[in-house]
C-alpha cells in the first residue's frame, strides 16, 4: 500500500510517519484485501490536532475517517479506530451479500461545481438568477449496485451519492434522510 502522509502547516516527523504506517497498515490489512493507497493529512485547529485519512480499496470503494484530539498521536489513534470500524462493517456487509466483486468498479467522468451561497440579506431579490460558480472540478461517478452505493456513501460519510446502477445502467441517487433512513432515487 502506498502512503501519502502530510501536514497542513505542521511538520510530520519520521516517528509519526512510522507510527502511522504500522498502525494503519495493521488495521487495514485485517479487514481489506489489497488496499491501493492511503492519504493521511494532519492539521491544527485552534488547540486541537485534526487527522483525516482516506483509504482507496482495490474494489474502487473509498473509506474516510476524521478525528480531533489535543495530542497528534491521539488524533491519529482515534482516526485509525474509526477507519477500522468502517472497514469491519464493510467486510461484514460483503459477507452478507454473498457476492465478491470480480472486477474493479467502473467510473464515469463528470464535472462538479461549487456554487456561491445566497447573500445574507434574504429579503432582497438577486440581480439575476444565474448562480455564481466558485469552483469547477472533475469527479467520478461509480458503477455500483444499490447495496454497494449505500455502503460507499456510509464509508465516505457523505450525505448523498450519485452512481450508475449496474442493473439498468441509469443514474441513481442514494441519500441519508432526516429520519436516519436511506433514500434511493431511481428515475
TrEMBL record:
The gene is raiA. Associates exclusively with 100S ribosomes, which are dimers of 70S ribosomes. GO terms for molecular function: ribosomal small subunit binding. It comes from Roseovarius bejariae. Coiled coil: none annotated. Gene3D superfamilies: Ribosome hibernation promotion factor-like (3.30.160.100), Sigma 54 modulation/S30EA ribosomal protein, C-terminal domain (3.30.505.50). Required for dimerization of active 70S ribosomes into 100S ribosomes in stationary phase; 100S ribosomes are translationally inactive and sometimes present during exponential growth. This is Ribosome hibernation promoting factor. Keywords: Cytoplasm, Translation regulation. One of its GO terms (cellular component) is cytosolic small ribosomal subunit. Its main location: cytoplasm.
